[in-house]
Amino acid sequence: MADYPKVAQLKTVEALRARLAELSLDLPVDDEILTADQGSPLAAPLAIGGFTVGNRWCIHPMEGWDANRDGSPSELTLRRWRHFGLSGAKLIWGGEAAAVTPDGRANPNQTLATPDNKAGLARLIGELHAAHRQAFGDLDGLLVGLQLTHSGRFCRPSDKRLEPRIAYHHPLLDAKFGIDPRDDSVVWTDDDLERLIDAYVVAAGLARDVGYQFVDIKACHGYLLHEFLSARTRPGRFGGDLEGRTRLLTTIIGRIRDAHPRLMIVVRLSAFDVVPYQTSREIGQPMDYSALKPYRFGFGCREDDPLTPDLAEPIALVRKLKELGVAAVNVSGGSPYYSPHVQRPAIFPPSDGYQPPEDPLVGVARQIHVARQIKRAVPELPMVGTGYSYLQDYLPHVAQAVVRAGWIDAVGLGRVVLSYSELPADVLSRGSLERKKVCRTFSDCTTGPRNGLVSGCYPLDPYYKDLPAAEELKRVKEGLKA
Ligand SMILES: Cc1cc2nc3c(=O)[nH]c(=O)nc-3n(C[C@H](O)[C@H](O)[C@H](O)COP(=O)(O)O)c2cc1C
Ligand code: SF4
Question: Which pLDDT score is estimated for 462?
């Protein structure tokens, strides 16, 4: 079993610094949390696409597997968006992944960005705005977008069964997710992609019509537009060299820009990847890729050592995105389905994961350094960093230090917002955290949906603790121990 010191046991900033030094990790950590009045770098405004965002806190998109079957928001979905509004963060990066076609959903309860759900999309932003106004008096400096997605290899639109639509046959992912490598019926044709591009343009128009200020074209975490970035073996216009592999993403952006010239467009990118890991109860191990060298099935990893990032192509893509008028990039990495320790570092793995193969602080630092390198390469483009939740009590200390140092422009929050949505406001107004609300990376918010339950912070959010799903989750976890 992995046995790393828990962050909650590191009682002082000095203890965290000592642990980082032991791991040879270079991360700046401030001594104290600063409030806005004390000049916190996180309180500074940030220009994105001609809009001045009120501070440097961003809420990452997080879906809850809790929309109604018709793709409209349920009370749980609305509650999550209300919490985003109450958080005090001024950049709401997409709210959650909304599927541009019903068959592109990652689960039957995913929110839809289709004409039938226009009213639902309006309710989500309306609820967030009302909560923000109630807590902070107005909407000044608040920038809210909608994340648009197609789940590709991870589509489950009907039930727990995968109904994949893939860019190309990937030797390891096909094996991991039960796809017959000879079955080409699951591979997108170029003609079908043209229809998909249309669906993105329609979805962007809906978002604009109901008041979202931007759309995020999701290209991360193993979903369709991320998968295309590594489609070297795909023949035709949408595969092969970097230009071909990025064509689907850049065409969608160009077509949305032409149809809706005043709508801001941003991209969430998995800027590095690794070989898929095996699901197990043991310490995580990559799948066997010895017969696949040079490894040509990842985006942003070395061909000779695909466990190590290679940012040459991601940087070239980010430069291209800037040329296309993309207003900002949110830098992420890996995938929750095949490399969760990379994508959302945690001490307790989700049910389809494995014990962490490294101290999760290593995963945090990897994400921060990748984002830093991309920011350094394309300094004019505003960027948001990811993977900070594992820092727990010290999240603000690192966040304000990296923003001050210019490593990144804004700090995005994922899981910690599920357990402690008011964290950004508390930091900026009080300079302290409520420790009992800090996410301890138990991963129940991932294990729940992997087992057909809604996502949420079952351990720390009293609302979820009391749901019948909490009992079911307990049974699932007991079963895993048996
Ligand atoms: C329950 C849950 C749902 C998520 N849904 C999305 C999503 O819809 N879109 C997305 O880009 N990332 C999604 N993510 C990833 C997060 O945005 C974020 O990248 C990840 O949790 C790492 O950040 P953190 O360390 O602050 O949690 C989700 C994560 C969790 C835990
Ligand atoms: S369930 Fe709660 S404590 Fe666990 S990882 Fe998710 S947000 Fe954090």
Answer: 95
Q: How far is CA 386 from CA 78, 270, 331, in A?
A: 24, 10, 6
What pLDDT score was predicted for residue 3? 87
Give the containing element (helix H, strand E) for 13. helix 13-22
Atom of ligand 2 minimally distant from the CA of 419: 7
Residue 394: C-alpha distances to residues 155, 167, 340 (Å): 36, 40, 22
Q: Which of 444, 446, 450, 455 to mutate for ligand 2's pocket (most ligand atoms within 8 Å of CB)?
A: 444
- Name 149's bridge partners: 99
- Of the bound ligands, which one is closest to the alpha carbon of residue 350? 2
Indicate whether 80 pLDDT > 70: yes
Q: What is the pLDDT of residue 1?
A: 58
Share of the chain above pLDDT 70, in %: 100
Ligand 1 pocket, Cβ-based, cut-off 6 angstroms: 60-63, 96-97, 147, 218, 220, 268, 332, 344, 386-390, 413-416, 445-446, 455
Q: Do the Cβ atoms of 410 and 385 come closer than 8 Å? A: yes
Give the pLDDT band of residue 482 (cuts 50, 70, 90): confident
3-state secondary structure of 76: helix
Nearest protein CA to atom 3 of ligand 1, as residue: 62
CA distance 146 to 226: 18
**pLDDT 10s digits, 141-165:** 999 999 999 999 999 999 989 999 9
- Give the nearest ligand 1 atom to 414 CA: 26
Would you say 344 and 270 are in contact if contact means Cβ atoms under 8 Å apart? no
Q: How far is the CA of 388 from the centre of ligand 1 (A)?
A: 11
Q: Which ligand has the minimum distance to the alpha carbon of residue 454?
A: 1
Q: How far apart are CA 307 and CA 2, in angstroms?
A: 19
Query: Residue 181 above 70 pLDDT?
Result: yes
Mean pLDDT of 91-120: 98
Question: Any residues with CB less than 8 A from the CB of 37 and at least 6 apart, and which?
Answer: none
Residue 368: C-alpha distances to residues 25, 216, 339, 378, 477 (Å): 11, 21, 17, 15, 31
pTM score of the predicted model? 0.98
**Which ligand has its closest atom nearest to the C-alpha of 343?**
1
Atom of ligand 2 nearest to the CA of 346: 5
Tell me what the mean pLDDT of segment 73-82 comes to. 98
Between the two ends of the chain, the Cα-to-Cα distance in Å is 16
Distance (Å) from CA 96 to ligand 1 centroid = 9
